[in-house]
Design brief:
This is Putative transposase. InterPro entries: HTH-like_dom, Integrase_cat-core, RNaseH-like_sf, RNaseH_sf, Transpos_IS3, Transposase_IS3/IS150/IS904. GO terms for molecular function: nucleic acid binding. Pfam families: HTH_21, rve. It comes from Rhizobium esperanzae. The protein has 228 residues and is an alpha/beta fold. It has two domains: 71 residues, no CATH class; 108 residues, 2-Layer Sandwich (Nucleotidyltransferase, domain 5). The protein is 38% helix and 17% strand. Strands 3-2-1-4-5 form a five-stranded mixed sheet. The longest helix is centred in the N-terminal third of the chain and has 16 residues.
Protein backbone atom coordinates (compact mmCIF):
# COMPACT_ATOMS: atom_id res chain seq x y z
CA UNK A 1 0.00 0.00 0.00
CA UNK A 2 1.32 3.49 0.84
CA UNK A 3 5.09 3.50 1.42
CA UNK A 4 5.99 6.64 3.36
CA UNK A 5 9.70 6.08 2.62
CA UNK A 6 9.22 5.85 -1.17
CA UNK A 7 10.65 8.52 -3.46
CA UNK A 8 7.14 9.17 -4.79
CA UNK A 9 5.15 11.56 -2.63
CA UNK A 10 2.34 10.20 -0.48
CA UNK A 11 -0.18 12.21 -2.52
CA UNK A 12 1.19 10.77 -5.80
CA UNK A 13 1.04 7.22 -4.43
CA UNK A 14 -2.53 7.81 -3.27
CA UNK A 15 -3.54 9.00 -6.75
CA UNK A 16 -1.92 6.02 -8.48
CA UNK A 17 -3.60 3.55 -6.11
CA UNK A 18 -6.99 5.24 -6.19
CA UNK A 19 -6.92 6.10 -2.49
CA UNK A 20 -8.67 9.06 -0.96
CA UNK A 21 -5.95 11.66 -0.40
CA UNK A 22 -7.31 12.61 2.99
CA UNK A 23 -7.18 9.08 4.37
CA UNK A 24 -3.51 8.39 3.68
CA UNK A 25 -2.40 10.72 6.47
CA UNK A 26 -4.53 8.85 9.01
CA UNK A 27 -2.61 6.25 11.02
CA UNK A 28 -5.11 3.58 12.12
CA UNK A 29 -4.72 1.54 15.27
CA UNK A 30 -3.21 -1.86 14.41
CA UNK A 31 -5.68 -4.75 14.28
CA UNK A 32 -4.59 -7.94 16.09
CA UNK A 33 -3.47 -10.75 13.78
CA UNK A 34 -6.19 -13.00 15.21
CA UNK A 35 -8.89 -10.50 14.27
CA UNK A 36 -7.40 -10.04 10.79
CA UNK A 37 -7.59 -13.81 10.26
CA UNK A 38 -11.21 -13.84 11.43
CA UNK A 39 -12.09 -10.88 9.21
CA UNK A 40 -10.61 -12.53 6.15
CA UNK A 41 -12.57 -15.71 6.75
CA UNK A 42 -15.75 -13.73 7.52
CA UNK A 43 -15.27 -11.91 4.22
CA UNK A 44 -14.90 -15.19 2.33
CA UNK A 45 -17.97 -16.64 4.02
CA UNK A 46 -19.97 -13.47 3.37
CA UNK A 47 -19.21 -13.76 -0.35
CA UNK A 48 -20.50 -17.35 -0.35
CA UNK A 49 -23.38 -16.78 2.12
CA UNK A 50 -24.47 -13.12 1.74
CA UNK A 51 -27.64 -13.87 3.73
CA UNK A 52 -25.69 -15.03 6.80
CA UNK A 53 -25.88 -12.89 9.93
CA UNK A 54 -23.51 -12.91 12.89
CA UNK A 55 -25.08 -16.01 14.42
CA UNK A 56 -24.78 -18.11 11.26
CA UNK A 57 -21.28 -16.81 10.56
CA UNK A 58 -20.24 -17.76 14.08
CA UNK A 59 -21.41 -21.31 13.38
CA UNK A 60 -19.56 -21.42 10.06
CA UNK A 61 -16.39 -20.14 11.74
CA UNK A 62 -16.67 -22.83 14.40
CA UNK A 63 -16.98 -25.38 11.61
CA UNK A 64 -13.58 -24.14 10.42
CA UNK A 65 -12.15 -24.53 13.92
CA UNK A 66 -12.24 -20.77 14.62
CA UNK A 67 -13.90 -20.24 17.99
CA UNK A 68 -15.22 -16.76 18.72
CA UNK A 69 -18.32 -15.20 20.25
CA UNK A 70 -21.29 -13.98 18.24
CA UNK A 71 -20.93 -10.44 19.58
CA UNK A 72 -17.31 -10.35 18.46
CA UNK A 73 -18.37 -11.55 15.01
CA UNK A 74 -20.96 -8.75 14.93
CA UNK A 75 -18.30 -6.22 15.97
CA UNK A 76 -15.96 -7.35 13.19
CA UNK A 77 -18.79 -7.26 10.65
CA UNK A 78 -19.50 -3.65 11.64
CA UNK A 79 -15.80 -2.78 11.29
CA UNK A 80 -15.82 -4.38 7.84
CA UNK A 81 -18.98 -2.56 6.79
CA UNK A 82 -20.91 -5.73 5.95
CA UNK A 83 -24.25 -7.15 7.00
CA UNK A 84 -26.58 -9.88 5.86
CA UNK A 85 -28.65 -9.23 2.73
CA UNK A 86 -32.25 -9.65 3.77
CA UNK A 87 -35.40 -7.64 4.30
CA UNK A 88 -36.01 -6.50 7.83
CA UNK A 89 -38.42 -4.20 9.69
CA UNK A 90 -37.59 -0.51 9.40
CA UNK A 91 -36.20 -0.06 12.91
CA UNK A 92 -33.14 2.05 12.03
CA UNK A 93 -32.97 5.74 11.25
CA UNK A 94 -30.24 8.09 10.07
CA UNK A 95 -28.52 10.24 12.66
CA UNK A 96 -30.55 13.07 14.15
CA UNK A 97 -30.81 16.06 11.84
CA UNK A 98 -30.48 14.12 8.60
CA UNK A 99 -33.29 14.21 6.07
CA UNK A 100 -35.14 10.91 5.66
CA UNK A 101 -35.50 10.08 1.96
CA UNK A 102 -38.21 7.77 0.59
CA UNK A 103 -37.25 4.53 -1.11
CA UNK A 104 -38.23 5.23 -4.72
CA UNK A 105 -37.04 2.10 -6.52
CA UNK A 106 -39.74 -0.27 -5.36
CA UNK A 107 -41.71 -1.34 -8.46
CA UNK A 108 -39.72 1.09 -10.64
CA UNK A 109 -38.77 -0.19 -14.11
CA UNK A 110 -35.15 0.79 -14.78
CA UNK A 111 -34.92 0.99 -18.58
CA UNK A 112 -31.95 3.22 -19.48
CA UNK A 113 -28.50 4.39 -18.38
CA UNK A 114 -28.32 7.35 -15.98
CA UNK A 115 -31.82 6.63 -14.73
CA UNK A 116 -30.58 5.19 -11.44
CA UNK A 117 -27.12 5.17 -9.92
CA UNK A 118 -26.32 3.23 -6.80
CA UNK A 119 -23.39 3.34 -4.41
CA UNK A 120 -22.06 0.78 -1.99
CA UNK A 121 -19.05 0.27 0.25
CA UNK A 122 -17.18 -2.99 0.85
CA UNK A 123 -14.20 -4.32 2.81
CA UNK A 124 -11.06 -5.61 1.10
CA UNK A 125 -8.48 -7.73 2.98
CA UNK A 126 -4.84 -6.89 2.30
CA UNK A 127 -1.52 -8.51 3.19
CA UNK A 128 -1.07 -6.26 6.22
CA UNK A 129 -4.56 -5.15 7.14
CA UNK A 130 -7.54 -4.04 5.11
CA UNK A 131 -9.02 -1.14 3.13
CA UNK A 132 -12.49 -0.03 2.10
CA UNK A 133 -13.76 0.25 -1.47
CA UNK A 134 -16.68 2.44 -2.50
CA UNK A 135 -18.11 2.31 -6.01
CA UNK A 136 -20.77 4.12 -8.03
CA UNK A 137 -22.67 1.75 -10.34
CA UNK A 138 -25.19 2.46 -13.09
CA UNK A 139 -28.20 0.32 -12.16
CA UNK A 140 -29.22 -0.38 -15.78
CA UNK A 141 -25.88 -1.11 -17.47
CA UNK A 142 -24.16 -2.50 -14.32
CA UNK A 143 -21.17 -0.37 -15.32
CA UNK A 144 -18.87 0.78 -12.53
CA UNK A 145 -18.73 4.54 -13.08
CA UNK A 146 -16.10 5.38 -10.47
CA UNK A 147 -14.45 3.95 -7.37
CA UNK A 148 -12.14 4.92 -4.52
CA UNK A 149 -10.16 3.19 -1.77
CA UNK A 150 -9.70 4.37 1.81
CA UNK A 151 -8.29 3.04 5.08
CA UNK A 152 -11.18 4.64 6.99
CA UNK A 153 -14.96 4.62 6.54
CA UNK A 154 -15.01 8.39 6.13
CA UNK A 155 -17.33 10.33 3.83
CA UNK A 156 -14.50 12.04 1.93
CA UNK A 157 -13.56 9.13 -0.34
CA UNK A 158 -17.23 8.48 -1.14
CA UNK A 159 -17.57 12.14 -2.13
CA UNK A 160 -14.51 11.88 -4.39
CA UNK A 161 -16.04 8.87 -6.15
CA UNK A 162 -19.35 10.68 -6.68
CA UNK A 163 -17.58 13.80 -7.97
CA UNK A 164 -15.69 11.72 -10.54
CA UNK A 165 -18.82 9.87 -11.68
CA UNK A 166 -20.70 13.15 -12.13
CA UNK A 167 -17.80 14.73 -14.04
CA UNK A 168 -17.38 11.77 -16.40
CA UNK A 169 -20.93 10.50 -16.89
CA UNK A 170 -23.37 13.33 -16.23
CA UNK A 171 -25.98 12.83 -13.53
CA UNK A 172 -28.71 10.28 -12.76
CA UNK A 173 -32.39 10.86 -12.17
CA UNK A 174 -32.17 8.87 -8.93
CA UNK A 175 -29.18 8.24 -6.65
CA UNK A 176 -29.53 5.21 -4.38
CA UNK A 177 -27.43 4.36 -1.31
CA UNK A 178 -27.94 2.63 2.01
CA UNK A 179 -28.39 4.39 5.36
CA UNK A 180 -24.68 4.44 6.24
CA UNK A 181 -23.42 7.56 7.97
CA UNK A 182 -21.11 8.28 5.02
CA UNK A 183 -24.13 8.66 2.75
CA UNK A 184 -26.33 10.61 5.17
CA UNK A 185 -23.63 13.12 6.13
CA UNK A 186 -24.20 16.78 5.38
CA UNK A 187 -21.13 16.96 3.12
CA UNK A 188 -22.20 13.95 1.03
CA UNK A 189 -25.81 15.03 0.56
CA UNK A 190 -24.61 18.56 -0.30
CA UNK A 191 -22.77 17.13 -3.33
CA UNK A 192 -25.97 15.52 -4.61
CA UNK A 193 -27.95 18.68 -3.97
CA UNK A 194 -25.37 20.82 -5.81
CA UNK A 195 -25.57 18.45 -8.79
CA UNK A 196 -29.35 18.98 -8.81
CA UNK A 197 -30.10 15.27 -8.83
CA UNK A 198 -33.85 14.93 -8.87
CA UNK A 199 -34.32 12.16 -6.32
CA UNK A 200 -32.20 10.60 -3.59
CA UNK A 201 -33.31 7.33 -2.06
CA UNK A 202 -31.82 5.64 0.99
CA UNK A 203 -32.40 1.90 1.33
CA UNK A 204 -32.77 0.49 4.84
CA UNK A 205 -30.17 -2.30 4.97
CA UNK A 206 -27.87 -3.57 2.24
CA UNK A 207 -28.57 -2.61 -1.34
CA UNK A 208 -29.94 -5.28 -3.60
CA UNK A 209 -27.88 -8.37 -4.31
CA UNK A 210 -27.14 -7.44 -7.93
CA UNK A 211 -25.35 -4.25 -6.92
CA UNK A 212 -23.38 -6.02 -4.21
CA UNK A 213 -22.22 -8.54 -6.83
CA UNK A 214 -21.19 -5.69 -9.15
CA UNK A 215 -19.01 -4.14 -6.45
CA UNK A 216 -17.47 -7.52 -5.65
CA UNK A 217 -16.74 -8.09 -9.34
CA UNK A 218 -14.87 -4.78 -9.43
CA UNK A 219 -12.95 -5.86 -6.38
CA UNK A 220 -11.97 -9.20 -7.90
CA UNK A 221 -11.23 -8.08 -11.47
CA UNK A 222 -9.46 -4.78 -10.89
CA UNK A 223 -7.95 -4.99 -7.45
CA UNK A 224 -6.79 -8.59 -7.34
CA UNK A 225 -3.94 -7.70 -9.70
CA UNK A 226 -3.23 -4.22 -8.32
CA UNK A 227 0.31 -3.74 -6.97
CA UNK A 228 -0.71 -3.08 -3.40
Amino acid sequence: MIDREHKLSVVRQAKLLGFSRGSVYYLPRPVPDGDLALMRRIDELHLDYPFAGSRMLQGLLRGDGLKTGRLHVATLMKKMGIEAIYRRPNTSKPASGHKIYPYLLRKLAVTRPNQVWAMDLTYIPMARGFVYLCAVVDWFSRKVLSWRLSITMEAAFCIEAVDEALARHGKPDIFNTDQGSQFTSIDFTAVLKKAEIGDVTLFHGRLNKALVCDVRQLRRSRLSTAPL
